[in-house]
Amino acid sequence: MNNEEMNGSLAVNEKAYRIVRLLGKGKGGYSYLSEQDGHPVVVKQIHHEPCDYYTFGNKIEAELRDYERLLKAGIRIPRMHTVDTGAERIVKDYIEGPTVMELVQTDVSVERYLPQVRDMAAKAMAAGLNIDYYPTNFVVHDGLLWYVDYECNDYSEQWDFEHWGIQYWLPK
User: Fold this and answer.
1) How do residues 87-145 score in pLDDT, each as one tens digit?
2) Closest to 43 measured CA to CA, from 97, 114, 92, 112
3) Is the pTM of this model over 0.70?
4) Distances (CA, A) of 161 to 47, 75, 90, 123, 129
5) Which domains does the chain possess?
6) In terms of C-beta density within 10 A (0-12 exposed, 13-18 middle, 19 or more buried), how is residue 146 classed?
7) Helices in 20-58 by DSSP H: which ranges?
8) Non-local CB neighbours of 54 within 8 Å, separated by 6+ positions
9) Residue 147, Cα to own-chain centre: how many angstroms?
10) Which of 39, 100, 120, 167: disulfide with 135, CB 3.0–4.6 Å?
11) What count of other Cβ atoms lies within 10 Å of the Cβ of residue 153?
């Protein structure tokens, strides 16, 4: 954690965002629920911690590229507000609601969301992409499923929803 984070705020393009809480840590960064002028947003701080099972290039460039690829594919994702490439920070919409992981862990059935994730998977595959189907990357808001990560990779059947992701969505 850097000094800004310890002081409870992060600057993105010289604009201060008050940190409310840590939402999560992924392979590429830390995501914080933050506020700016009373509006909730997510500030993602890219990190460079090692990851044994994934190789990264330039993470901030990858986030920007992947955001555009997902938009073009028609995947429901939070809108990106701004990017500070120097500080490696992104500000995007906060989608309020439980993650699919939270639902699965509390024994709430996610069966009704399977058609939505399968629709996303079909759109991703049609665009030559896989998204990260791990359930922490999906939030339910007003009955709609949102992919709140921007990570995507070239399509591979091994890593698509039916061959990899679904195992984390259904009870064991």
Assistant:
1) 999 999 999 999 999 999 999 999 999 999 999 999 999 999 999 999 999 999 999 99
2) 92
3) yes
4) 27, 14, 27, 12, 11
5) 3-169 (1.10.510.10)
6) buried
7) none
8) 27
9) 6
10) 100
11) 16
